[in-house]
Amino acid sequence: MKNTSQSFRFVLSMESIFNNFPLSAAVTVPPASRLIITSGHVGMGPDGKLTQGLEGQISMAFENLGKALVAAAPQLDSSTIWQHVYQINMYLAGELTQDIIETVFRVHRQVMKDCEPASTMVGVHSLAFGSLFEVSVVCAVPEF
Q1: DSSP-assigned letter for residue 133
Q2: How far is CA 76 from CA 69, 87, 140, in A?
């Protein structure tokens, strides 16, 4: 595959990827945990309209996802729920350029702090509702 200045540069070493992005090669889920598996969340506001721009849609999608996770695990709050995310799948409409990947991970770090789940990022032709970004997770919370 040809590497152009606008496409993401390919890193030969997996260690380089894990040192530069907030993700893990593999994770284990603690025993006695309850799994929460979410649907995909997009950057749609309470008015039913997509937020403007990629970064806005990413932020809103994470906000929507956080609300869903807290609703499923009310013993946790919006600041602690991210520590229990073990897998994240992110879908973006269009080509995954380096700028786009950096934007995704910038918002990811703002929201998820030091959480580094197993991660997948995929560029797709289109997403539901004309969204630019969609995210789903697998979360494991302690049984109480």
Answers
A1: E
A2: 9, 18, 12
* 32/116 Cα distance (integer angstroms): 21
- Residue type, position 139, single letter: C
Residue whose tokens read 């889920």:
29
The helix (H) or strand (E) run that includes residue 102 is helix 98-112
Q: What digits encode the pLDDT tens for the residues 65-115?
A: 999 999 999 999 888 899 999 999 999 999 999 999 999 999 999 999 988
Q: How many CB atoms lie within 10 A of CB 12?
A: 7
Domains observed in the chain: 32-142 (3.30.1330.40)
Distance CA 4, CA 137 (A): 31
pTM: 0.82
Q: Where are the beta strands (DSSP E) in the chain?
A: 33-37, 41-42, 85-93, 118-124, 133-142
In angstroms, the CA 139 to CA 18 distance is: 20
